[in-house]
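Structure, all two chains, one model.
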Amino acid sequence: MATKLIGKQTFALSNPPSFAGHACVVGKKEGEGPLRDSFDFISEDSFLGEKTWEKAESALVKKAAGLALSKAALSNSDINCIFCGDLLNQCTGTTFGVRDSNIPMFGVYGACSTMAESLALAALTIDGGFADKTMAVTSSHFCSAERQFRTPLEYGGQRPPSAQWTVTGSGAAVLTAEGPGPYVTHVTPGRIVDNGVTDANNMGAAMAPAAYDTIKRHFEDLSVGPDAYDLIVTGDLGAIGSEILRDFFAADGVDIAGRHADCGLLIFDRKKQDVHSGGSGCGCAATVLCGYLLNGMREGRWNKILFTATGALLSPTTTMQGESIPSIACSVAISKTK
Amino acid sequence: MATKLIGKQTFALSNPPSFAGHACVVGKKEGEGPLRDSFDFISEDSFLGEKTWEKAESALVKKAAGLALSKAALSNSDINCIFCGDLLNQCTGTTFGVRDSNIPMFGVYGACSTMAESLALAALTIDGGFADKTMAVTSSHFCSAERQFRTPLEYGGQRPPSAQWTVTGSGAAVLTAEGPGPYVTHVTPGRIVDNGVTDANNMGAAMAPAAYDTIKRHFEDLSVGPDAYDLIVTGDLGAIGSEILRDFFAADGVDIAGRHADCGLLIFDRKKQDVHSGGSGCGCAATVLCGYLLNGMREGRWNKILFTATGALLSPTTTMQGESIPSIACSVAISKTK
């Protein structure tokens, strides 16, 4: 019997895995933002010495994974398996980034929710008794994402105010069966929610209902409210999506505003940096988690956070075919104590 | 401690989950091949009544998942989570196929190895105590794959003899914690292997070293040889890749030829059907597993099979940038008894 399944869809880990190391590397623009001190490496060069932006994204992955391992005082051969994925077609950002690592790999795809999904599976694999040490890593790159999903940068297309700015960065985390924490205690996987939004320049509006669905389920499954967490942090809803999420909860008579933050709003200063509705991309939630959030937990700023990365599961092809945007959100509860 | 990890990278399940239902649906060409009697549904219409090939692929997924559930006498709401993925950019074939199911979802990407990866994670999730009932589903469609990865069909590009034919089809499997079997007993996740092959029209050659790496590791971890299995079945190495795999083992003094089969060679009749080196695509391994192979096990044709789906983790962009083809293979051991 599924002894770790509580409520409808939440997994309660019996021996919560510990973060043994985590690292984040970003591009220049992210390094000029409010979280600059939390990044392990800031590249002034958007190519990272490579010939293409896609190869640069893989270089970010390689660097983040290497730093996370080094902080955990482990090497590639110690890791039982890695979960990774990104936004590029066929997930080549992470695949090529971990290609030389020799670590058994599970590729995952959850659009911008990929860090939560990877982390969830990395934790379940340890708690299930299959591994002692696992990793999760994801990435995004503004330039590779723009030309793949929107228009070539040289085209200079105008962006509506609801658009978000894809973060150039990669975040990596090493989990171990034993350790001093913080710990992954619960996972609530997301269901697809599609409320009919068709505007690919308004991902926040498309994803907010998915975040609401998963977080609400998480609360119900654990019979808790928002006050169970010091921080409820979404991945990249941005300004518009965050407001929608808070409104949804307010309509239920639940006030999350005081405890809610969004990685897409944390990583950039919207007044000084031209990012419209905020940051986005797999690298957004990943770099904020693997720097600012986990560092903050270690420093005692927060004891319990609910990390909920959100993803818009569209493609340029589905948009061109007139489809709406299916979205998903995966919640991972992280606690300083088991 | 990781009590279920044996050897370097194999997971031994402590209470092997059972296949409770499985189904496969295919297109017309597959329905004219040698496995025609094993398919649950053969569509004469490559659009399946939809307006685009991408939507048709999602229709295949929906049909396969629905049939598998129906055979298991279960409904969507009984399933704790689903693992799914496909070849389309951003995995929209499966995402849109399961969009309305309301089942908590983990998207995965392992190129043509996706069925083995999905099945592996679906089994681990049950054995880890997180779920009682899970599903794995993948798909591919010749027409959506050709125009995305190669050239528009209307272009009529010539195919070299080493090329393979993407299977139009979807396979779905339902796993349950208890049941009469067959059972998933072991999982050996793959590592990326890249021997420098750059010809995107010769996937078999690129993937064979990955299949060899995983199967060899599996044998070593379990301290067994090929005779531990009645059938060692690869995903879609085709004629060229299969020969390379057998040669690799022969060089070690291990003869797998008598027990090896390849889904890409099983699904089409290469003498009568114009498929060059054989079938390929996520749907190839998935439809052969969820029909011919699992039916054969139930009928007593084989007691133990090692299902090893292989994937080429390239994208058109990486190929255009001169990159070689990283490949991966995931092995799932299936047995009539626990």
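Chain A has a mean pLDDT of 97.
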